[in-house]
Design goal:
alpha/beta; elongated
Amino acid sequence: MTDGEHGFLGLTHNPFASEDTSFFEGGDRKTNLEQLRHIAQWSRRTTLVTGSLGVGKSTLYRQLSMTLEPGVKAARINGVLVNTLREVLWAVAQGVGASVSNDANWQILAEVLATYFIGQERQGRFCLIIVDDAHLLDFGSIEELLKLTRNSPARLCLFGEPSLVGLVTRPAQRQELSWHEVRLSPYTLEESEAYIAWKLSLAEFRGKMPFSSAQLSKVQKLSGGLPASINQICADLVERLESGQPERSGARFPVAHGLIVVLLVVVVSLAYLVLSGVEPDNAADVPTSREVTRTTIPLPGVATPDPDPKDAGTPEGPTDAAATDEASATDVGIETEPEELPVEETLVVPEEPVVTDTAPVLTPMPEPADIQAKRDREANQIVPAVETPAVDVTEPTSTSTPVVSIGTVPSGTRDSQWLLAQPSALFTVQLASFSTEDRLVNYLNQQKDPLQFGWYPIERGGKRLFVVTFGQFMSKTEAMQAAGALPPETGKVEPWVRPMSLVHDAIKGGPR
């Protein structure tokens, strides 16, 4: 049935086979949408929307992108089309309207975006990054998006399969970033029936539900309550109803041909008896036309087994009743009652997922070993600091006064004044940044050689951070070698090689 035709059900089209922009509000989908729309009320700036394949994540993503609050500027990204680090940041800049150079590398893009997000917030506008199929993004893209939300007022909403949780957990923990997960659940039987009725109403169906209770239960079982699977199964059911009852499989032997064969067999039998001069002893010995039909007419394309010699010419011999009835119905063109509309059982009912309000503790996926090498190849300049993506135009240019007293950190560690006195041509390795004094002090006290460690405070987005560095080296090569052989007590950090001149600029609050 094509669109615009009215078949047996009176539908304008097959609603289960057609893509549309309508949104089903059952199954908690309306509640989920309202939570995502009001980003100004988000307690955490990063949200994950997860669920099994076919549960409706992309549908919710489209509805969110079309119904955002006024004053929200959104960058909409599809992980199938855009997934590498620079591609993702470029798509974000284009989506929110940030002005960047066409040949800008990913570091410059990150800085421009952070500055742009801060400026938009001061004007009373929120910036939102929404990504569909986010589990397809590479590791560097996910990590950089998390950094943007940590160091700027932008909000981030990632839609993806449950594996997305493992991709986000480790970098979020490393950056001390909290996030929220919304896990979409499959529909219950009642919600599935409501969804089917709603889809039929989109095709102007006004009658009684065309599917029986048994069929609805079977649809629920096979689909597992997943909207995409419900659509596939019901699309087939609608097509069958609109085209009439399905025919039985296999070709029927034409009735006229069957009668001719019956007559031919009777004539041949009589001719044989006459020519052989044998009179039939009993009329019962002559087979009737019905008996001949049942035992001698094969269906086209069906192999007929050789008869048992013991049963030849014995009308009273044992016969298969089912095969006889099937042959009889086929020969004379009798229509047998059609079976209930079949539905292929190909789907498995998934386990009921659970909606969580806090980030679950999961074993993260392994981090790719070549992330740093990949970034160095992409970059046209020295890698900037991980914790400070942009320069606020209102940030003071004078040297910030540390809030950590000298007596609280281990003796021998190098403070910002000592770092400023080092030659700008040297290199150092940035290890981590901490949001509180206690974390900084605790980390430095764990190190066995305090003379190798430096620290300095910075402010970004109204928040004070404390950066820890390791060593001073004459060349970038020496610094990279040291970054690959850090003492074990430094922990699981992500080292970044930086020129001392950039460290000086960060301490002074100058350009990065």
